[in-house]
Amino acid sequence: MLKFECTLCGKCCDAGGPEVTIEEAMRFADLFPLSVRIVAARKGKNPDELIKHVKTFGHRLRAGPPGVTPYIYHVYGTIMVTVPEGLACPALKDKPCSLHPDKPLACSTAPFAGGVPQRLQQAAYKRWADWECIDHKDGEMIFDGKKITNTGYLRHYKQTYNAIKLDQKLFAAFWPQIPKDVLPDILEMATTQHSLLPFAEMLPILRDSGRYDDVTLKRLITSQNRLLEGLAQKVPDEPVRGPIHWHMQLALKRWQAQL
Ligand code: SF4
Ligand code: SF4
User: More exposed terminus of the chain, fewer Cβ within 10 Å: N or C?
Assistant: First the structure.
């Protein structure tokens, strides 16, 4: 059972950016620095129920490279808006969100997660406890413990689910293209947490998909290059600040190589 009230306070937006669909990534490329988020679900490591669910997104069993991870059941991708730790979502210029009500699907679906089955939502929405909007005294009952009962949230959840499912075709095509120099680290990390790769790595897949013309892709490269350069200036070079800093440097290098 979940009671929920969103007051558009923006606290969850202070904690970084949302996940977006590929279509949203292209639409908001001038605003959001973007990464590919890879989650690998492995039998024996992740709950069977989760593995069953993620397989419905159309991925098959894939073997990891020798000596790393023998069997990966599923590799699931999303696009993350990526900002260094401590920075808010770039759309939070004022409160509420500057994109509201046309914000990304994941934000309209919150506190539910579009990539998680309805019966497992309790685990997904618990992170909202930090922001005090779940079990809010004025909140409306929107989840009965097994399914979403509010029609508005259910509609957003289904839209998000369908968009994620559509995107998985491109992520499935991307999987064999993940650069060999980073693949072992991704597989090792991704069974327990997600890994991030620069969105630039997906350019050949986006091109081959026929969904985007060269002008749109060129705009994407130019926008991401500009955004990442701006962010890199905000992050001091020394000491190196962990994976996000590394990720931004790699992203910049790879986007610049496309220009
Ligand atoms: S979901 Fe919660 S934290 Fe986020 S804007 Fe709404 S009330 Fe605030
Ligand atoms: S897009 Fe808007 S609602 Fe979503 S995290 Fe950013 S500021 Fe918040």
Answer: C
Instruction: Please identify, by atom number, the ligand 2 atom nearest to the C-alpha of residue 100.
Output: 2
Distance 97 CA to ligand 2 centre (A): 5
Which amino acids bring their CB within 6 angstroms of ligand 1? 6-12, 110, 128, 131, 133
Domain ranges of the chain: 2-258
Model confidence over 94-110: pLDDT tens digits? 778 999 999 999 999 99
Backbone angles phi, psi at 200, to 5 degrees: -55, -30
State the Cα–Cα distance between residues 58 and 190, nearest whole angstrom: 18
- Residue 201 Cα, ligand 2 centroid: separation in angstroms? 25
Phi and psi torsions of 20, nearest 5°: -135, 160
Task: Report the range of poorest mean pLDDT among 17-21, 126-130, 202-206.
Answer: 126-130
C-alpha gyration radius of the chain: 18
Residues belonging to the chain: 259
Q: Say if residues 225 and 254 touch (Cβ distance below 8 Å).
A: no
Residue 90 CA: nearest ligand 2 atom is 6
Specify the higher pLDDT residue, 127 or 102: 102
Q: How far is the CA of 151 from the centre of ligand 1 (A)?
A: 19
Summarize pLDDT for 154-191 with one digit per residue, the tens.
999 999 999 988 898 888 888 777 777 766 666 666 55
- Amino acid letter for position 202: M
For a ligand 2 pocket test, name from 13, 19, 30 the mutation site with the most ligand atoms within 8 angstroms of its C-beta.
Answer: 13
Alpha helices for 16-150 (secondary structure H): 22-27, 48-55, 105-109, 121-125
